[in-house]
Specification:
The complex is a heterodimer of chains A (about 280) and B (about 120). Chain A is of the alpha/beta class and about 280 residues long. Chain A is built from ten helices and eleven strands. Classes of the chains: A alpha/beta (about 280), B alpha/beta (about 120). At the A-B interface, loops of A face helix 1 and helix 2 of B. The structure holds iron/sulfur cluster (2 copies).
């Protein structure tokens, strides 16, 4: 079972839901796909060990062979190669590694070189019975998706994998949520929360992934998120109250199910609901 | 000598468009004869690397000076490597920009001054 935890904007409690769900289930994998700012481990404190580099291939030009015909620059739709009157200039950060320029070069002047854009790390602990896999994009690198895809290649299909997706609705979110069995959208009961939820619902519907909503800080705003879910037929999986104790545990970096065991049961119940939802493909 | 001014329309009366990569038009002007040519920027809506394309386009025209408001890092390094002088001007018409250049009152843009746009 592969479940993505996502939200239309940052700061809604997505990571809290991901961490607590993984801990409540135990024997699970937690994948932190928020590669620009991975923060699951703030709540877990695992010792992380580097697993591997994330490389993308970028072209390199042999200026001895290059005749400056300009075919590569013309071909590259990402404008990663510029042809100047007397030289070529490459912009590795614009390159998407499609390899097209290598194919179109009539002089075989372009070869592909590996460039590291981030790393994957893994952590376990004796205290918690889960495995954390974390991807980190190097600072200044623009492309998060290759790190996310490589992270997801480590999913063990025989267990439960919980993915903490990046916030928003852009490419890295799609890379995280794609091919999951289910997506949990975390939101807040405020007008902004509703607005971002509607955008996120649009994305998961387009990806054709089953989904439900967790309302965090319930009691804080108004009832419009719930009204929206009802009118759209979106199941509300859980409501986490706007509660002082939860907020304090959060600020101390403690997963709240650790000290509030009733919530462990609630998260397990949510998981069972998700399984039912998945097994009957939407007839919730 | 050839000057390129980024503009939001074609013609000397058009306002200068401060965004190099995403300007509407490039106005190529010979400040001696005031002969000009205006070319549409095909990259206005490019998803990334617009500045790189724009820089190739204007460098291909053999310009000596570029007058614009802001230039991203990739375009800046291309223009620099070709020895193009970059001058700042953002409020006024193309004609005013050329006159200010001739009067020597324009400041040089010595480093990329826009973040550019890239990413996936
Ligand atoms: S590999 Fe693709 S994206 Fe990269 S420079 Fe070549 S053509 Fe452009
Ligand atoms: S296609 Fe090959 S030969 Fe032509 S400009 Fe590019 S690298 Fe040089």
């Amino acid at each position: 079972m592969k479940i993505a935890i996502a939200s239309g904007k940052g700061g809604t409690g997505k990571t809290t839901v991901a961490v607590n769900l993984a801990l409540a289930l135990g024997n699970a994998q937690l994948l932190d796909c928020d590669v620009e700012e991975p923060n699951c481990n703030l709540f877990l404190g695992f010792n992380l060990k580097k697993e591997e580099d994330v490389n993308i291939t970028v072209p390199e030009v042999d200026s001895g062979k290059c005749t400056l015909c300009g075919k590569c620059a013309e071909f590259c739709q990402y404008n990663a190669i510029a042809k100047l009157p007397r030289s070529l200039m490459l912009f590795p950060k614009l390159c998407h590694g499609c390899g097209g320029c290598v194919l179109v070069c009539p002089e075989n002047a372009i070869i592909e070189e590996k460039r590291s854009i981030g790393i994957l790390e893994k952590g376990t602990s004796e205290r918690f019975n889960i495995e954390l896999l974390q991807g980190t994009l190097n600072i200044g690198e623009p492309m998060a998706s290759p790190v996310i895809r490589q992270l997801k290649a480590h999913i063990d299909e025989s267990t439960v994998a919980i993915i903490d997706s990046p916030p928003g609705t852009a490419c890295p979110v799609i890379a995280s949520v794609a091919e999951m069995d289910y997506c949990v959208l975390v939101t807040e009961p405020t007008p902004f929360g509703l607005n971002d939820l509607i955008l996120a619902v649009d994305v998961v519907r387009q990806l054709d992934i089953l989904f439900g909503v967790v309302i965090n800080r319930h009691g804080l705003g108004d009832g419009r998120v719930e009204e929206y879910c009802q009118s759209e037929g979106v199941p509300i999986l859980m409501k986490i109250p706007y509660d002082r104790k939860i907020a304090i545990l959060y600020s101390k970096g403690i997963p709240f199910i650790e000290q509030m065991p009733v919530w462990k049961e609630s998260f397990r119940g949510m998981y069972e609901d998700i399984c039912k939802h998945v097994s009957c493909k939407g007839d919730f | 000598m050839k000057i390129c001014v980024t503009a939001s329309n074609s013609g000397f009366g058009a306002p200068v468009d401060p965004h190099f990569g995403r300007c509407g038009y490039f106005m190529f002007v010979d400040p001696g004869s005031m002969e000009f040519e205006s070319i549409e920027n095909r990259q206005v809506s490019a998803s990334g690397g617009a500045g790189v394309q724009a820089a190739q386009q204007v460098i291909g025209k053999g310009i000596d000076v570029l007058i614009t408001g802001s230039v991203g890092p990739n375009a800046f390094s291309l223009l620099l490597s070709e020895g193009v002088e970059i001058k700042a001007f953002s409020a006024g018409s193309v004609l005013e920009a050329i006159e200010a250049y001739r009067a020597g009152t324009l400041e040089t843009i010595g480093a990329a001054n826009s973040a550019g746009k890239s990413g996936v």
